[in-house]
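Methods: example folding runs. The two proteins below were folded one after another, and each record is reproduced exactly as written to the output file, sequence line first and structure-token line second.
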Amino acid sequence: MSATDEIKKAIYAKYPMVYVVSWEEKRVEELLESFSRSAFQDNLYVWSATEGMKKGKDKLDGTQGILDALSFASNAEKGFFLFKDIQSFLADPLVVRKFKDTYFYIKNKPVRVFAMSVLLKLPEELKRYFAVIDYQLPSFDELYELVNSYLSEITKRGAVVSLKEDGISQMAVALQGFTMDEANFALSKVLHRKEIIDTSVLDQLKEEKKQIMRKEGVLEFITDKLTIDDIGGLDNLKDWLIKRKRAFSPEAREYGLDLPRGLLIMGITGCGKSISIKSVATLWELPLFRLDMNLVYSGIAGPPEEAFVRALKVVESASPAVLWLDEIESGITDKYTADSTARILGYFLTWMQEHRGGVFVGATANRIDMLPAELLRRGRFDQIFFVDLPGRKEREEVFRVHFRKRKIDTAKFNLPQLAQITKGWSGSEIEQAIISAMYEAFNQEREMSEDDLFKIFTNSVPLSTTMAEQIKKIRSWAHDRAARASSEKPEI
């Protein structure tokens, strides 16, 4: 059921007071105006702290304060009353008491009070008096209709739309997570004075999305396109991802498949955990959002639990999508005693179990022993993969990946020998060795050679040596608790 239908149902059910959680202030007001016109011949009153109570453009005297405005609503014979930004006033005991009084005054009259806020912040005393409705951000269908209306308009002005149906759908997908106003502004900006509408507008809309997500303070919209071909090794993990490539398609729903919930990749630092999560979004053609738990706890986006809940709701509004939680043990843990940490853990556990929004959680962890057992049980994540140091064949593949990325001719190098020499090296260590060798060669204005790499290898100590005890401990934990991301046997 849509939020619009829920509001309509609440009105017909004669709920005296409704709490609407939404960023879409304008759309909610227009919706209530439409309903009031049908029920009361245009009897919508709107209150804000800056303008008091208004009916249309007319201000009503003596209603500037919220207590006076609630008194006005209590004494009305009929009508809808919308109170904006209500979360700012519910810490006042007088306001709480006044809402309770209003409830009893209006419950047997054709009067409805709507309290609106971007967050649900109901005090305990009022929870039994309000029906709560989440009025979500625009759906894909609404955004698709908006995109088509813009394209139709600019076509009339002579612009040529070279996008196919799939491209138009991708435009709507790129706008998911926007309010309707933000979507309008973004389309106006990227389509302004364009004579040819092609795939370039998709990249521009993604950049707009990146800016919108920055406003959240804790979310980042990732636009890097990394594929599974950019990963050396990890064939079991790749196979798992490929088999779920069509997981969000209508055909999967018709087949009876549930949406995948999430994936936890734990293991040794520098062995491809983060790049694997990035490749999921590319492979499945879904938007990727990174949630920074350090920023959540920093308080720059408000109280941590509020920032966290708001971020999840934003990602849900852009679903289907991939939510990336990097080093999840640093933010979702039970090792701290702070109240906000406990509440975030509790909310996240419930959300992981219950959410149906098409959000796939891709989490990585280095210290999985810090994670609470409840997070690791089946039903939260679909699978837990352990990423070990790459084996010999995987190291060959790592060299091929990075040589190909930097346009280095692999035929000039003995890859089996390089792989043998780098036994115990992680993928990121091999990459950094290649980069360092390239700098040496570049400084001497020549191509990189094997000798350059050998010098780097000789003067470097890999992580497997400096952190041997920690790696042994991680391997021991993962032995019978996680699936191996690679089929190649580890070199102990």
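Second run, written to the same file directly after the first:
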Amino acid sequence: MSPEATTKTTYRLPIGPIHPALKEPVAFEFEIDGERIVDVRVSLGQVHRSVEWAGMRRNPIQILYLAERICGICSYCHPMAFALAVENIADIEVPERAEYLRVIQAELERICSHILWAGVAAHEIGFDSVLFLTWQMREKVLDLTEYLTGNRITKAITMIGGVRRDITKDMVPKVTEALNYFKDNFEKLRHIFLDDKTFKMRSQGVGILTKEDALQLCACGPTTRASGVKKDVRLDQPYFAYGDLDFDYVTPDILTGEVNGDVYDRIIVRLLEVKQSIELIEQCLDLMPAGDIVSEPKIAKLLATLKKVKGEGIGRMEAPRGEVIHYVKLDENEHPYCWKVRAPTYNNILPWIPMLRGEQIADIPIVAASTDPCMSCTNRVAIVDSGKKYELNREELHKMSVEKTRRLMK
């Protein structure tokens, strides 16, 4: 027996793409030494829905409703980033009141997403009672969203050039009541997650992402801010009415005086951002001017204008998970020539590798969940058309499937 064979102490541990600990399909391959993770490989590509392909066969207004379905949690950020890209191409000026209304909806979605994540994080370490508590609070966000938009998840409020629903004076007390509920319960949430001994033991010093790794691997959102990187599209390149509002980057040292870049710090950032979002909505209610909520209310006229537009545009937004980018190219046609989406989870996949190295097997779920991943947002298909026509019948497809299965089993 060779010396290498006698000294090898590691073994391979595959997890996924379908696994009870995973909420969406993603494949991990761990190299394990006892209970310790030595190395990790991540394989994507198990979820393809052809959203972009379908969008390139629809007009820009229809794409807004398709973009909402890229992600159920970011169902406002995706269509709004697309709208920003189109507005950039067509030089559409959005009414000032609509810019404030857009901020309010974006921050409500951030509160909803972060509270949902807190419940999932508690579930991953076995605290299902905390999951139920946080999701009870999330119901209040959904109730408010339904009151303002008529819908709870896919809000259908985005419009190119503005928004489709206003917040009247009669509706403000209901919004204020909900915000006061969140503020009253924030301290309870903060105490549970940041002071509980079990949460601290499972999150402090676990899944560390250094500031250098966060920068080199282009992490974004709360994941990178928890490592001390001050990066936030709302501040770096203000859009909507964010340039008029008073707020700053949220990093863990605001609360603890230090940055460790671990799971605990990522909990801190998201909880502080819930509080920040409440304050931003209150500022919008105080500062929001009167006026129109959309630049062109007649959809047929808007579509006729967009059919004459040619150019490229990018829409950038700070979604709850981080920066989302929509690239759009129009070429004087009813349908876009190109539509490409880059969701924040795409940036936060590679940081999993340094986070997981050196950790225990039991820490895999909470470390992976700490970036708030969304596989349906992330997976993409690029179709290259060489001009050749081809057709695969049932027998050929079956043969290719069998061959691939045999390759994977080797």
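Comment on the second run: The first strand starts at residue 11 and ends at 15.
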